[in-house]
Amino acid sequence: MDEKLLANGGGKPKGHYALAKGVEDHQLGMYDKPLPYFGWGIGWFCFLGGFIFPAMWYFATILYFCNYYQRDPRERAGLAASA
Fold this sequence. Notes:
Blueprint: H1 3-7, H2 41-49, H3 55-65, H4 76-82
C-alpha cells in the first residue's frame, strides 16, 4: 500500500470524504418537533391569551425570568413579548 493512503485513514485518496452516517438514517433533531399550542409555543399562546386572561402575562413573565427558553430557544420571542 501507498504510505499516502495509509496516512489518510485507509483506502481513500486524499481529498475524498466518507459519510459518517447512512443516507437512510433520519433522526429527528431537538428543534424538529413542532411547538406546543398549535405551533405557537407557550410564549405566543400566553401573549394572545393574555388579552382575555391577563394573568397569563404574569405566568409568561415568570417563565421568561426563570429562563424557560433555555429548553427551546424558539420560545424566547413569545415569552419576551408577553413579559
